[in-house]
Hints:
Number of helices: 7
Low-confidence stretches: 233-252
Amino acid sequence: MSRTKIYWLVDDGLPEHVAMMEAVPGVGNVGKLVIDSLVEKHPSRTIGWILHPDFPPHSTLDENGLVAPPRISINSVILPDGRTVITIGGPLQPMTAAGQHEVAESILALAAESETPQLLILAGLAAGTDDKGVHVICADASVRENLEANDIPVSREHPEAGMIGIAGLLVALSPLHGVPTIGLVAETLGASTDVLAADRLASWIEAGLDLPLGLDLDSTEETARNLMATVEIGSSLEDTLTEESEGSSDFYV
C-alpha cells in the first residue's frame, strides 16, 4: 500500500490541461529552473501537495509565514496562449528507493485519472563545455513512433548508465499506467543552477512540442537566484545521488 498522500488545497483534482511537467533537484537543476520559472512568471496557483514520510524531515515557512510540511507542489499555470499546464516540483524527493517508487506511481496514477495528454519529465545530464543538446527519451514504443513521425529524434543510446530517482521511474513506469511520457534531458556543465541549459530546454519545448512557455533568460536568472536560497534543503539527497553516479556522466537526475 502506497504511503503517498495527495492533499488538495483547491478543488479535488486537476483542471483541464494540455500537459503535465515534472522536475526535482538534479544535475544543474535544469528542469527545476524551467518549472519554477513558469510558476513565478505566469498566472499560477498551488492546487495540491504530494506528501510522503520519506521526504527529508524539514518543515519550512510558506509565503504566509505558516509552517508547511516537506512536500512536492502541484501547480496550475496559465500559458501565454491561455492554455493550462500542470507543474509538479519542489526542493526534494524521497530519501529512499521505496519512497521514490511510491511517489512516482502516485504521480502516474494522477496523470492517468486526469487523462493527461502528455507528461514531460525535465532533467539534466552532466556533459562537456561544448555539449548543448537535448535528449528525448521514452519507455513506450508507440510514444517513440509518434514522436519520430513528427520529426522528433528519440535517443536509443542514452541513458547508457541508467536514470535514477523519481525522474527515471516516471519515464520507465509510464507504459504501465497508459500515460504518454517523454523525458527531456538537457546537457549541462552540472553547475548548481545552469541557467543557459534551462533556457535551451525551454526553447526546445516551445519549438518541438508547440507549448509557448513564454520564458526568457532574465526571468530564469531571477528564478535561479531564488533557487540558490533554498537549494540546501535537498543538498544531502543530491550528495547521495552524486556519490551513486560518480564515475559516469550518463546518469540523469
